[in-house]
Write a structure and sequence with these properties.
Protein name (chain B): Monovalent cation/H+ antiporter subunit D
Structural class of chain B: mainly alpha
Low-confidence stretches of chain B: none
Distance between the termini of chain B: 14 Å
Shape of chain A: elongated
Strand content of chain A: under 5%
CATH topology of chain A: Helix Hairpins
GO cellular component, one term (chain B): plasma membrane
Largest sheet of chain A: none
Transmembrane segments (chain B): 6-22, 34-53, 73-97, 109-127, 133-151, 163-185, 205-230, 242-259, 279-298, 305-326, 332-353, 374-394, 414-439, 459-479
GO molecular function (chain B): NADH dehydrogenase (ubiquinone) activity
Number of strands of chain A: 0
Helix content of chain A: 55-70%
Largest sheet of chain B: 2 strands, antiparallel
CATH architecture of chain A: Orthogonal Bundle
Order of helices and strands of chain B: HHHEEHHHHHHHHHHHHHHHHHH
Strand content of chain B: under 5%
GO biological process, one term (chain B): ATP synthesis coupled electron transport
Mean pLDDT of chain B: 88
Helix content of chain B: over 70%
Oligomer: heterodimer
Largest interface: A-B, 33 and 27 residues
Number of strands of chain B: 2
Number of helices of chain B: 21
Number of helices of chain A: 4
Distance between the termini of chain A: 55 Å
Number of domains of chain A: 1
Radius of gyration of chain B: 22 Å
């Protein structure tokens, strides 16, 4: 389970970083979302991965650490707010700058220049 | 009542922001201005009372919901954090009053957002555990994102987009760092972490080191340390100057977090991880000072120049963190207060100069003369003397103090030449800026008479911020005593841990 879990986090982060480096707002937003999912999973695992343990302090001797769950919850809420903000900002940026590049510059790609020829 | 004082610098701005969003204030600008100013002043009074209280009675621990330290969330008010809280609230009053002179009408929600920003900054200074540092960072960041867009244009959107994306990546890195540290140490309370770091063995040491260094990346991003400072000049120069003046405190939050984490948690008691970030901090700080000075030389307008001055000041502060001794920390605090106030004043001054010069704005090119050359010129020269560190103003005292603390350390060989040459470069760059702003006029008969005088409130705020500099010199004795005892308190780690773990009852 640890291997699967760790690979999930790893794949999400690498996809996220790849999308971030695209430097266009839509992929960047997607990349940020993926990274924040990965971070949430990672935080959750900070309390150790266990099976068949009660989630909160109960009468049993075995219980899972409740603190990472509280942390993840907070991080998810904050992550949602931030994603909502960056989406709106990206839309506004597209409207204001006439391009979805994060630098606001329209870079003519190879295909565009071919079409012009 | 007195035991709840610690929570007031956080609760009052929150209350203020909510009041300002409610109908009677939401509709009328006039009422909003009055309410906002009053609440800002009340916040400042509460912060000042807290400062005095902590100064007299030692570290004040406030357990939220009466859950005591390692498990509950605590607010820790020591001399260092209350000093910074008071500074923030003071700057908040200045910015809000300056905004009332007309800048707040150019966009929506200026006043509530400023209060939210103050809430975030105060919270980050006061909180006693790292996860809440993250939460308050997010609070102040989202307020700053929106403030950056205040009265914005296209340039503004671009800068904001870069700033927001960078900070979101930073937040993710912050959480990963926190996750690693929690996984290893099993706690996020700063005092508790400081105790447990020393007990680590085996592979856990390396994990904790990785977590700690990831945090360094985040704090370097917030504080604008060398490789991660590139967002700052653009962002600060494209923000409205009144907003940029408030942002002057935001880089200091990163510096404060570094100071706290690398002195208390990974400080001298951290066993194998003792002073683990010191060498990184030192090298990056020196490089930041150099790059900041180059940026100052290259700046095309006054706002960008001031933004690069902020980068230089961050470099200086971080170099002092890397020294890790009491006198260096005391000098750091003095320099921090001085540099925050003077860079805020310079941003506001850039606003006035830019408005009065018409089309050329605050660009450093010959243009129309300013309408009030003597007033603005006098303010500008005082600000420049302060920021460069010429006698007799506070910059000079700070500079002498910094040079004196570094004198006997082995790093003086590197620090002295870099710091002194940088100061000289700053002096040259700022003299040149002043010359082109005030003396070089386009054409010969451009004695402009059609300009408007600055709003008296704006002048009062700028003069007030600048007046802090001579005050820091005149009351240098008691102030430096305070800084030294604050630094002693920070470095007395055992005492701090005891206060947090036993306090808050």
């Amino acid at each position: 389970m640890e291997l699967l879990y760790a690979s999930c986090v790893g794949v999400l982060v690498s996809c996220g970083v790849f999308l971030l480096l695209r430097a266009r707002t839509f992929p960047v937003v997607l990349g940020l979302t993926m990274i924040s999912y990965a971070v949430n999973l990672f935080l959750f695992s900070a309390g150790r991965l266990t099976i068949n343990k009660a989630v909160v302090l109960g009468t049993g001797a075995d219980y899972a650490d409740p603190l990472p769950q509280a942390l993840v919850l907070t991080a998810i809420v904050i992550g949602f707010a931030m994603t909502a903000f960056v989406v709106i900002l990206a839309i506004r940026g597209r409207a204001d700058l006439g391009s979805d590049h994060v630098d606001g510059q329209i870079i003519k790609s190879a295909t565009d220049s071919k079409e012009q020829k | 009542m007195i035991q709840h004082l610690t929570s007031l610098p956080i609760l009052l701005p929150m209350l203020a922001a909510v009041i300002l969003l409610l109908p009677p204030c939401g509709k009328s600008l006039r009422i909003r201005r009055i309410a906002s100013s009053i609440m800002a002043v009340i916040t400042f009074i509460a912060s000042a009372l807290l400062l005095i209280h902590v100064h007299n009675s030692g570290i004040n621990v406030y357990a939220i919901g009466n859950w005591s330290a390692p498990f509950g969330i605590v607010l820790v008010a020591d001399m260092l954090s209350t000093l910074l809280v008071a500074l923030t609230s003071f700057l908040g009053v200045g910015v809000i009053l300056y905004g009332c002179a007309g800048d707040d009408a150019k966009g929506n929600f200026f006043h509530p957002l400023v209060h939210f920003l103050i809430l975030g900054v105060n919270g980050a200074f006061l909180t006693g555990d790292l996860f809440n540092v993250f939460v308050f960072f997010e609070v102040l960041l989202i307020a700053s994102y929106s403030l950056l867009m205040h009265a914005g244009d296209k340039q503004n959107t671009r800068a904001a987009l870069q700033y927001v994306i960078l900070n979101l990546v930073g937040s993710s890195v912050f959480l990963i760092g926190l996750g690693i540290l929690y996984g290893v140490l099993g706690t996020l309370n700063i005092a508790d972490m400081a105790q447990k770091v020393a007990l680590l063995t085996g592979d856990d040491v390396y994990l904790a080191k990785a977590g700690g260094l990831l945090l360094l990346v985040v704090f370097a991003l917030k504080g604008a340390l060398l490789p991660l400072h590139l967002w700052l000049p653009n962002t600060y120069a494209s923000a409205k100057p009144v907003v940029a003046a408030l942002f002057a405190i935001m880089t200091k939050v990163g510096v404060y977090a570094m100071l706290r984490v690398y002195t208390v948690i990974f400080g001298e008691q951290a066993g194998e991880l003792e002073h683990m970030a010191q060498s990184w901090l030192w090298g990056l700080a020196i490089a930041t000072i150099v790059v900041g000075a180059i940026g100052v030389m290259a700046a095309q307008d006054l706002r960008k120049l001031t933004a690069n001055l902020v980068v230089v000041s961050v470099g200086t502060l971080v170099a002092l963190i890397a020294l890790q001794n009491i006198t260096a920390t005391a000098a750091l605090l003095y320099y921090l207060v001085h540099s925050t106030l003077v860079s805020a004043a310079l941003f506001l001054l850039a606003d006035l100069i830019g408005t009065q010069r018409g089309k050329v704005g605050d660009r450093l090119v010959p243009g129309r003369a300013v309408h009030q050359p003597y007033l603005l010129g006098a303010c500008f020269i005082i600000a420049v003397l302060t920021v460069v560190g010429m006698p007799p103003l506070s910059g000079f005292v700070g500079k002498i103090w910094i040079l004196k603390t570094t004198l006997n350390s082995e790093q003086a060989m590197l620090f002295w030449p870099v710091y002194l040459i940088t100061s000289f470069v700053l002096l040259v760059a700022l003299s040149r800026a002043g010359t082109s702003l005030f003396w070089e006029r386009k054409g010969k008969k451009t004695e402009s008479t059609d300009g408007v005088n600055a709003h008296p409130l704006q002048v009062v705020i700028i003069v007030g911020l600048l007046a802090c500099s001579p005050l820091l010199v005149i009351f240098g004795g008691p102030i430096s005593d305070y800084m030294i005892s604050a630094a002693t308190q920070l470095h007395d780690i055992n005492n701090g841990i005891d206060a947090v773990m036993k306090g808050g009852k």
